[in-house]
Amino acid sequence: MNVGDKAPEILGFNEKGEEICLSDYKDKKIVLYFYPKDNTSGCTAQACNLRDNYADLRKAGYEVIGVSVDDAKSHQKFIEKNNLPFTLIADTDKRLVEQFGVWGEKSMYGRKYMGTFRTTFIINEEGVIERIISPKEVKTKTHAAQIL
User: Fold this and answer.
1) Catalytic, out of 32, 43, 57, 89
2) Staple 120 to which of 33, 58, 60, 65, CB 3.0 to 4.6 Å?
3) Is residue 3 domain-resident?
4) 15-64 pLDDT, tens per residue?
5) Is position 43 annotated as part of the catalytic site?
6) CB contact at 8 A, 9 and 23
């Protein structure tokens, strides 16, 4: 997905098993942020920064939706543990990460593996991607400021 592309209507299922669609967020801009894994240091820092600035993001017209390939149960624990006020999509079939082009080969300490590239897509009220914050640009501790 690139700037100017229309985001898919059906995004997936959240931590409660509810289907999440773009049309559920009429007249709102969406911060769709993809992250590698629940309860890891960088992902927790990013989620907590969005949580701490959630009121400002909402005031600016944004709704936050997180996405990882973790399952709903993992998301529920992550939300509870960190008191997150936004929904998390459990993309266990990797449909959304592949559709948005954020799933690929990564490497850590010389070991190669498949994973999610930390990327944020800003989707406007018409469902069109207006901005992408790439993996190299995302700052987990100040992510809300980057969005605003």
Assistant:
1) 43
2) 33
3) no
4) 999 999 999 998 899 999 999 999 999 999 999 999 999 999 999 999 99
5) yes
6) yes
Residue position matching structure tokens 């070991």: 111
Strand partners, 107: 112
Report whether 36 contacts 118 (CB < 8 A).
yes
Angstrom distance (rounded) from CA 91 to CA 69: 4
Indicate which CATH number applies to the domain containing 140.
3.40.30.10
Q: Is residue 5 part of a domain?
A: no
Helix (DSSP H) and strand (DSSP E) numbers for the chain:
5, 9
In a domain, 1, yes or no: no
The total domain count for the chain is 1
102 occurs within a structural domain? yes
- Full DSSP string of 81-141: HHT--SEEEE-TT-HHHHHTT-EEEEEETTEEEEEE--EEEEE-TTSBEEEEE-TTT--GG
Give me the domain span that covers residue 82.
Answer: 10-147
Look at the chain and count its residues. Answer: 148
Taking the C-alpha atoms of residue 74 and residue 11, their distance in angstroms, rounded to an integer, is: 18
